[in-house]
Specification:
463 residues, alpha/beta, Leucine Aminopeptidase, subunit E, domain 1, Aminopeptidase, nine-stranded mixed sheet, 20 strands
């Protein structure tokens, strides 16, 4: 795969304001920009809205971005990049963190610079950055942001070029020559080993499912962490076909897998002393002649039987098999899965917040805290036992979809819980923030790479 590249980055003198075009933060009480902007009108509304102004100062053009404090560091970097790109074009601009955390400033600028342009016949010219911060930060920040770019690129790839087999090859190529070992298990192996959920979801497509296993073992005696990402490369809904208005963006149903792959990229690039295994159950949900029918009964990897009452509730089926297999094989200390699982989670929390559900309060809190540090908002939803009642079947152990239209995110998580065997586990429903219909903060339209930074931060707590 041709990966999206960073803009050019140069290193300037730390703490020095130099150059013709300079981006600096400004607060009501702090910053070198205060003396530069002089009497330029900046009222409370400017600071409340975190606005951006272009101001001539002596022989400089100042990109002044309003901030409230250190919590706006990423926003400052993103706003500076957007102002340079939108108003000034392919210019060199100096990014001066001043009183803000340097790493987060650079991170925000790089994240905002992302454009999925590989299919354009003419590449756009871009600004480039002179970063006035610590040089030793650049490698660490670019490694993490590269993981987000990897996730975004995979998420944005169209379904005619990204399908289970090509996703597996992309992963092999990406990690070739690194410390991440990659296994790919084909359709016949999945049938032989009893992956009933993956087989049921993927058998209707000519592009048969694959199970992708990534192993990074550099943590010595540290216990292994297992991360699992839903990898539906395109979701038509199957026999329960989605309506036209809901089907166009369904290449983005691979975002959970993309986040897990991106996190593994960042982990190995940062050379973290960890033991991490990542699983991607990859499938294409199509209404072919061999597709699973509503009312079919399947046997999952852990032996439980499931009545398929809705073929468009496919993600939980492939995740359940992967969770059961990963736990059986690797005996992890903790398990986290990510998936664009339910529209109900987006209805409950909106497009910028992920839901989290699990069976261990400490793990849930750690992930929420990790997300907060990385600017990724996560909110806990309940896991009451009565949600499982809605997932019962009269003819099998479970149904894959509830008869009720309520609490869809909670019901789906309760279904997944039946496949983790009491192991410490958390489920991140990223259906809302995994993709954006328009730019927000440092996220582009399309796949956002949500979850990569949360996973890396959470795993880094263990080093």
């Amino acid at each position: 795969m041709k990966w999206t590249q960073f803009p050019r980055i140069e290193i300037g003198k730390k703490g020095v304001v130099e150059g013709r075009i300079v981006a600096v933060p400004i607060s009501p009480t702090q910053g070198v920009a205060r003396e530069m902007v002089g009497t330029a009108p900046m009222d409370d509304r400017f600071f409340e809205s975190r606005g951006t102004r272009l101001i001539e100062y002596k022989n400089k053009l100042i990109i002044a971005v309003a901030v409230r404090g250190p919590e706006d560091a990423r926003m400052f970097g993103a706003s500076a990049w957007k102002a340079a790109e939108q108003f000034l074009g392919p210019v060199k601009f100096h990014l001066v963190p001043d009183f803000l955390p340097e790493g987060e400033v650079l991170e925000g600028a790089l994240l905002a610079s992302y454009r999925f342009g590989k299919y354009k016949t003419k590449a756009d010219e871009r600004p480039w950055i002179v970063f006035h911060g610590s040089e030793n930060l650049v490698e660490r920040i670019t490694a993490k942001v590269r993981g987000v770019f990897v996730a975004r690129d995979i998420s944005n790839e169209p379904g005619n070029t990204l399908y289970p087999e090509s996703l597996a090859e992309t992963v092999r190529d990406a990690f070739g020559g690194t410390r991440v070992e990659v296994e790919v298990h084909p359709f016949d192996w999945l049938k032989q080993k009893g992956f009933g959920g993956m087989v049921a979801v993927g058998q209707g497509s000519t592009n048969k499912p694959r199970l992708i296993v990534m192993t990074y073992l550099k943590g010595g005696d540290h216990r292994t962490k297992l991360i699992v990402g839903k990898g539906v490369t395109f979701d038509t809904g199957g026999i329960n076909l989605k309506p036209t208005e809901h089907i166009n963006g369904m290449k983005l149903d691979v975002c959970g897998a993309a986040a897990v792959i991106g996190a593994m990229w960042a982990i190995q690039a940062m050379d973290l002393p960890l033991n991490v295994v990542a699983l991607v159950p990859a499938a294409e949900n199509m209404p072919g002649s061999e597709a699973t029918r509503p009312s079919d009964i399947i046997t999952m990897y852990n032996g439980k039987t499931v009545e398929v009452t809705n073929t468009d509730a496919e993600g939980r089926l492939i995740l359940a098999d992967a969770l059961a297999y990963g736990i059986e094989r690797f005996s992890p200390d903790a398990v986290v899965d990510l998936a664009t699982l339910t529209g109900a989670c987006s209805v409950a929390l909106g497009k910028r917040v992920a839901g989290i559900l699990g069976n261990h309060k400490g793990l849930t809190k750690d992930l929420i805290d990790a997300g907060e540090k990385e600017g990724e908002k996560i909110w806990e939803l309940p896991m009451f036992d009565h949600y499982l009642e809605d997932m019962k079947s009269e003819v099998a152990d479970l149904a894959n979809a509830s008869k009720e239209r309520y609490a869809g995110a909670c019901n789906a998580a309760k279904f997944l819980e039946q496949f983790v065997g009491g192991h410490k586990w958390a489920h991140l429903d990223i259906a809302g923030p995994a993709s954006a219909e328009s730019e927000w903060e440092w996220n582009p339209k399309g796949g956002t790479g949500f979850g990569v930074k949360t996973l890396v931060n959470w795993l880094s707590m263990r080093t």
